[in-house]
Amino acid sequence: MSAAVPYLQKLRKPQLAELAEITDLRNHEDYNKPELVLALDQHLQANRSIFATDKRLANYYSRLATRSRGVSSPAKRDLKQEVTPSSDGVGVTRRRTTRLKEESVPTPRPRHRAAPLPPSPAIVTDAIDRQSAEIRRSISEAWTGSGVEERSSALRATLSSAKAIQVIALLLEAASLIYELLPLRYLTTIPAVRALHTPPYPIKVPDLFVLVDGVFWAPISLWLLTSLVLPLLAAYFFNFRLNSASRGKGGGGASSFDPLSFNLVKALVSYFVYRREFDFFGTFVFATMHKVDMAVPGQWRGTVAGAVIGIVGTLYEEILRRG
Questions:
Q1: Nearest residue to 244 via CA among 168, 158, 322
Q2: Quick one: DSSP state of residue 92?
Q3: DSSP state letter for 104
Q4: b/e per residue 45-68 (b: at least 16 CB within 10 A)
Q5: Strand 79-85, strand 184-190: pairing
Q6: Range of 230's domain?
Q7: How many domains does the chain have?
Q8: Looking at the structure, do residues 57 and 169 belong to the same domain, yes or no?
Q9: pTM score
């Protein structure tokens, strides 16, 4: 029991109930006034760091801060001397001691001490919010420091063009053709590991000796001619952007190669070579043309489809540039 309990005892029960509601004291409606005084005193002491700044509780905490004074002091005894005559005429002095008057202090009845109350929901919610904010701040700083956002923005800017689509299509065709032309040769086998329950795994490597054979270079030469050399020549000499830039209609300087001409010529050449079997006047045999056609994803239709996508992307960029 603290030194501020007398202050709480002087308050009425509605006033105590109001303080209990202010400080989120649970189940205060079930207490009578003495129990409410003790429970409220314990609750305010346990959460002093939270409610000490509340002006409505200033009277309580000001009394709590003062030290309790001693209540006991030595009692004064009054001694009275009474002289009574004796039978022989000699005065006998009798000392009569007065009874010590002590202030009767009522013994408080044993009361039920309330168990320590858990923190209020508001305190728990504030703690959770602070922890969540700290975690979000740490994650945000880690994400910003990693540089992923900047790299993804740069990659997005690079891929957001018709030229990037054409390069990706060419790389896909070249990778498929090389995979078809370079056979895999058996090298060794990784034995099975019983402890890991793994089966034996054969290792195969590309046969690089095929690079000195015409079987490899004939299809490569045909693909380079139909997908790069002829389209680039047409894009250089038939550059529609060149005259547009010279008249001042273009948004910027003209490039050396026109992507529209590149894709148009690539689609036409691929159709005539792989579909109509044009062998460049006997330069390439049918087996070479068939091997290239089968190696490219989608065969000649895939090549033409990639060129059409490049044409659409080029026209869309030109519309946006002029708009």
A1: 322
A2: E
A3: -
A4: eebeebbeeeeebeebbebbeeee
A5: unpaired
A6: 154-322
A7: 2
A8: no
A9: 0.53
